[in-house]
Write a structure and sequence with these properties.
- The chain is mainly beta and 133 residues long.
- It contains one helix and nine strands; from the N terminus they run H-E-E-E-E-E-E-E-E-E.
- The strands form two sheets. Strands 2-9-8-4-5 form a five-stranded mixed β-sheet, with no helix packed on it.
- A hairpin with a 3-residue loop joins strand 4 and strand 5.
- The protein is elongated and about 105 Å long.
Length: 133
């Protein structure tokens, strides 16, 4: 027979656990090289989820700070940010944040676009003639 104390415990347990859900991400565009860009990921869930970052080619560790300071991850409570300093065109692409807790996980992609002037590679031939301005 179900007793009141069992019902209270069941309600308490059901009310305190929730699978993570990414609630905010934002695509970013960097207008020029050397600019700083911060990607932000926010998640809900109970217990509070931990947030990790990765690209299509590698995992980015939490609290990462590269030796040159190019990439820094900061996390607090339900929000994590990935800051790219002095961005290069090679930083463009997909970044994925994943929120995880003991109940499950959720992932969301965001995209960084880096706009830059075209670069000419290889020898450049310049032709001119007398009278050409």
């Amino acid at each position: 027979m179900l007793q009141t104390k069992d019902l209270i415990w069941t309600l308490f347990f059901l009310g305190t656990a929730a699978k993570p859900k990414i609630t905010y991400v934002e695509n970013q565009t960097a207008m020029e090289l050397e600019e700083q860009v911060t990607l932000t990921c926010e998640a809900s869930g109970d217990p509070i989820p931990s947030i990790t970052w990765r690209t299509s080619t590698r995992n980015i560790s939490s609290e990462e700070k590269t030796l040159d300071g190019h990439m820094v991850v900061r996390s607090h409570a339900r929000v994590s940010s990935l800051t790219l300093k002095s961005i290069q065109y090679t930083d463009a692409g997909e970044y994925i944040c994943t929120a995880s807790n003991t109940i499950g996980q959720d992932s969301q992609s965001m995209y960084l676009e880096v706009q830059y002037a075209p670069k000419l590679q290889g020898p450049v031939a310049v032709y001119t003639w007398e009278g050409n301005q």
